[in-house]
Write a structure and sequence with these properties.
This protein is α+β, with helices and mostly antiparallel strands. It has three domains: 194 residues, Heat Shock Protein 90, CATH 3.30.565.10; 119 residues, Ribosomal Protein S5, domain 2 (2-Layer Sandwich); 218 residues, 2-Layer Sandwich (Ribosomal Protein S8, Chain: A, domain 1). The protein contains 20 helices and 23 strands. The strands form five sheets. Strands 1, 2, 3, 4, 5, 6, 7, 8 and 9 form a nine-stranded mixed beta sheet that branches. It has a five-stranded mixed beta sheet with strand order 10-11-14-12-13. β3 and β4 form a beta hairpin. α14 packs across α19. It starts with 9 loop residues before the first helix and ends with a helix. The chain binds adenosine-5'-diphosphate (ADP) and magnesium ion (MG). The site of adenosine-5'-diphosphate (ADP) has 22 residues, from α2 and α5. The site of magnesium ion has 5 residues, from α2.
């Protein structure tokens, strides 16, 4: 070969371009489906054979192609979608590079059949490995059918890069699901090796999610709806029940284009924090809408990546949207904010199991003096948080209008609290709920220290092990922010002068040691020392299963739980509330 510079023959340059656009069968499917959607199709049928190696066919009922333009569609940089660079930043179509059809036709045998609305018949056209045939009349329905056979037949080197059939099929399914979720208003079907895989009817996003994932997912997804800082977010995010340890069901759409973007996926995780841990994959279908000037899609040939102009604004909007989605719901019990134990009630609906006074190791008088909470009556060991910076969420809708008389809280086996809610019955795990409350309180105190302390009448002297001593030094500031007042008292010995207020503790020395132990454990899983400390505080400070609660305590607990940012799970991700809807009860009693 001589070393003169030359222009590459068209077929070869298309094959090179194909390397970028057509990596595998799934990339072909993606491009064909994008074209069908751009053509305004409301019904799209996908037919695959042997994981797309033998056949990838996409049939749409869209606009079709004008016969004169047919050969043009297979030329590089031939597109009907943009004309100027400015168009790229006002993009509403999925395609714009005009590269897909020529690239695919360079590495496969392609046939197109297309018919415009009102035309007497359609037209067909073939291109095989870059060599084109004639445009011929043909009988076909309105719309376009693209048939791709023998993928990579002329580029065996590329075929070697393909992974196992299962992997390739997984990628194909991934593409299909992504677009089926992005376009729930389109009817979709998928056939593989003559077996129907999906038949999806047009509807809203929730029904599409249910069609793809089954009816059970209904109870575990929360709607996202937030319009902030130029980014409108909608869609659904899964509760902690749907968290997986492997990637798969995370979908981001920007102006209906499936995208991958680390800013956005990070923002979702940040919004879910602290419900997720590193390596957790929550379920979400997140749709973002913004002015096309706010991002650039032309950063990668497969158009899967985008670059946002204002990344931190996008991050913040998404984070807020996810928080709002999981922080609200209809699970809030119908408890009026100011429910007081002395309020007049009808006995039959409000009878509360009155628990015996908890047994305490010291005389009650001393205990009361020691643990006199800051804001509540002295017999209430679980005061509503003395910190009222968190605005109270008012009950909404029918909950508001429920009369005080019908509100009932029951403690079941000193473990669960039962409460009537708008839609039926809520069962609250008292320990998990209190953990959630304490965790969020602690995190607030760390942001805005310190927590009010309860000063001890009789400070406790504690001798610590080396480990405990070192841990205490390491976390000294956080202990202080939580409300502990600790003074050095000789070698490895401290004097506990005060502990955080609002806890029910029997021995502050024991609490402190348990905390030191726990924070060493937590720190293995939570790199942020504040989170590790907050989780330990929640775990060791919370009331336990088996602790009897008074009605006032239950009220305080439930009220504060539903003022939390994430009321529905404890810091370890276990649920705090289970909901039994009236519908479910009716169904079980066969009332319907
Ligand atoms: P792009 O989508 O980037 O414009 P493609 O190579 O994917 O480039 O397609 C080239 C052109 O062919 C499109 O701009 C469009 O006009 C036309 N086209 C392709 N597929 C279809 C289809 N299914 N229905 C109608 N027009 C189509
Ligand atoms: Mg295209």
């Amino acid at each position: 070969m001589d070393s003169r510079i030359r222009i590459l023959p068209e077929t070869l340059s298309n094959q090179i371009a194909a390397g970028e656009v057509v990596e595998r069968a799934a990339s072909v499917l993606k491009e064909l489906v994008e074209n069908a959607l751009d053509a305004g199709a409301t019904r799209i049928q996908v037919v695959l054979k042997r994981q797309g190696n033998d056949l990838i066919q996409v049939i749409d009922n869209g606009s079709g192609i004008v016969v004169e333009d047919l050969p043009m569609a297979f030329e590089r940089h031939a597109t009907s979608k943009i004309a100027t660079l400015e168009d790229l930043f006002a993009l509403r179509s999925l395609g714009f590079r005009g590269e897909a059809l020529p690239s695919i036709a360079a590495v496969a045998r392609v046939e197109i059949q297309t018919r415009r609305e009102g035309d007497e018949h359609g037209w067909s056209y073939r291109v095989e490995g870059g060599t084109s045939g004639e445009v011929e009349p043909t009988a076909c329905p309105e719309g376009t059918s693209l048939t791709v056979k023998a993928l990579f037949f002329n580029t065996p080197a590329r075929r070697k890069f393909l992974k196992s059939p299962a992997t390739e099929y997984g990628h194909l399914l991934g593409v299909f699901k992504r677009f089926a979720l992005a376009y729930p208003m389109v009817d979709w079907s998928l056939m593989h090796d003559d077996h129907p895989v999906y038949t999806l009817r047009s509807g809203d996003l929730k029904s599409r999610i249910v069609e793809l994932y089954g009816n059970k997912i209904r109870d575990h997804i929360r709607e996202i709806a937030m319009d902030e800082g130029g980014t409108a977010a909608s869609g659904f995010v899964g509760t902690t029940e749907l968290i997986r340890r492997s990637r798969g069901d995370q979908f981001i759409f920007l102006n209906n284009r499936p995208i991958e973007n680390r800013i956005v996926s990070h923002a979702v995780i940040a919004g879910l924090d602290p419900l997720v841990r590193p390596g957790d994959y929550p379920f979400y279908v997140l749709k973002l809408d913004m002015d096309p000037h706010g991002f650039d899609v032309n950063v990668h040939p497969s158009k899967a990546e985008v670059k946002f102009r204002d990344e931190s604004a996008v991050h913040q909007s998404v984070r807020h949207a996810i928080r709002a989605a999981l922080g609200t719901g209809d699970v809030k019990p119908a408890i009026p904010e100011k429910a007081k134990p002395s309020a007049p009630r009808r006995s039959i609906s409000t009878r509360v199991v009155q628990p015996p006074v908890p047994q305490k190791p010291m005389s009650t008088d001393i205990m009361d003096a020691l643990y006199k909470p800051v804001t509540a009556e002295k017999t209430i060991p679980l005061p509503v948080s003395p910190d009222q910076r968190q605005p109270a969420v008012e009950p909404q809708g029918p909950a508001d209008s429920e009369p005080v008389e019908v509100v009932a809280l029951w403690q079941l086996h000193n473990k669960y609290i039962l409460s009537q809610i708008k839609s039926g019955l809520a069962i609250i795990d008292q320990h998990a709920a209190h953990e959630r409350i304490l965790f969020e309180r602690a995190m607030r105190y760390f942001r805005n220290p310190p927590n009010p302390s309860q000063h001890l009448l009789f400070p406790e002297i504690l001798e610590l092990t080396i480990d405990d001593w070192n841990t205490l030094k390491e976390y000294a500031t956080l202990f202080k922010d939580l409300g502990f007042v600790l003074n050095d008292f000789g070698p490895r010995t401290i004097r506990v002068e005060a502990v955080p207020s609002g806890l029910r503790v029997s021995s502050e020395g024991k609490l402190l040691k348990e905390l030191l132990d726990e924070v060493r454990e937590q720190k293995k899983e939570r790199p942020d020392p504040r989170e590790a400390m907050a989780a330990s505080f929640a775990c060791k400070g919370a009331i336990k299963a088996g602790d009897p609660l008074s009605e006032v305590e239950m009220n305080a607990l439930v009220n504060e739980l539903f003022r939390s940012e994430f009321p529905y799970s404890c810091p370890h991700g276990r649920p705090t509330v289970i909901k039994l809807s009236l519908n479910e009860l009716d169904r079980r009693f066969r009332r319907t």
